[in-house]
Write a structure and sequence with these properties.
The protein is built from 15 helices and no strands. The chain has 309 residues and is an all-alpha fold. It has one domain. Helix 4 runs antiparallel to helix 6 and helix 4 packs parallel to helix 12. The radius of gyration is 19 Å and the shape is globular. Its main location: membrane. Pfam families: Mem_trans. It is a multi-pass membrane protein. It is found in: Cell membrane.
Amino acid sequence: MLIDLMELLVKIILIMGAGYFFAKKKIITPQVKQSLSTVLVHIVLYFSILSSSQQALNTEYLKGILMVFLASSVYYAVSIPVMLGLGKAMGLSRGKKEIFTTMAVFANVGFIGFSMISEIVGEEGVLYAVAYNAAYNIFFFSWGLSLLAKGTGKTQKVSPKDILTNKMLLVSVLAIVFYMLPVRFPAFLSTTLSSVGGMMMPISMLVIGAEIAEMKVGDILRDKYSFAVSFLRLIAIPILMIPVVKLLGFSANTAMTFVVLSALPAGSLNVIMAQEYRCEPEFAARAVAQSMLLMLVTLPVVIMLVKVI
């Protein structure tokens, strides 16, 4: 396990390094990076999710899907008010308190999470990640967006229709439905899905490397509130989740998936929405960049802890 983990970490660093190098050489320009991100989020991720539905039906997997969805829903329902209270205790101003909350609560599940889980756990883990991501979408596009609007002195009501028509949520539900059906796609179709879905990790790491190349490391490392986000996202939350999944009786792969998804850096979607709502987008960008860099150190430690505890 340790050797496999180190190989995965080296692979991640090398691909991120390639993204950094080609961005510095102006081969991966901001326009190319944006195009890669669009392809990843709107094509490759969907293929990866649908590919996970083609495994043999297993009642234990169905149980794991339900447990992950319920556990992640409870996590979001509890952590949002807790982080809001923490932000208030830290004396954060309006706007920064709200974006601090979303950054600390909502990890990079879609962009990094699926690729990591695919590499660490395999397609079974992707199914559990689909369930986790469904809860993410429900809470982020309702409570999360309402917080960002509140941070700028506005109010925003999100209707159930807005949540239920979210494309990522629809694809996630579709994948679970396909998984529960007694038939599977023809071999040529399932192979196509897995081939395209397999591009998740390399493309995401190239984009992250290119993003880091555009940032000033000094600014990233001097932001004390970004360090608070990184500590919560990468250390405190996953450490708390380890005894929880053990207490709830999660299987090894279900526990690994849930804890790894809880140990990821702050989500890039926070930055996009912070820019749209004009709610401290610079702070959001610094926190995402810092937590991405620190993840290279913290994630292997968290994975080993899940294995030994």
